[in-house]
Design goal:
Elements (H helix, E strand, L loop, with lengths): L3 E2 L10 E2 L6 H10 L4 H7 L4 H13 L1 H21 L3 H7 L1
Antiparallel strand pairs: 1-2
Helix pairs in contact: 1-3, 2-3
């Protein structure tokens, strides 16, 4: 059974399962948005059931904080996509 930790140099400080690069937000999305059963998440990612439920509990105990993390991630993804060259730019230079 692992704790939920935040370490600035691991995943940018996002709350995660101790000793793993699996964030609370990832677990919540797998269970609630992707419809994965908590037991399947535990099996697929070699986690204890207590770890999965601890991540879910952490999320619900810290909804505002988790919303901020989700917004940060979504913003980073959007910025990264904007910086990627479009397929058309490859054909224009060829």
């Amino acid at each position: 059974m692992s704790d939920i930790v935040s370490t600035e140099d691991v995943m940018g400080g996002q709350p995660r399962i101790e000793g793993r690069r699996i964030s609370v937000l990832q677990i919540v999305e797998w269970v609630h948005e992707d419809g994965m059963d908590a037991e399947l998440v535990a099996t697929e990612f070699d986690l204890g059931m207590a770890d999965v439920y601890r991540a879910l509990a952490y999320y619900y105990d810290n909804v505002e904080e988790m919303s901020t993390w989700r917004d940060r991630r979504d913003r980073r993804i959007s910025e990264s996509r904007e910086q990627q060259p479009s397929p058309a730019s490859f054909t224009e230079t060829a």
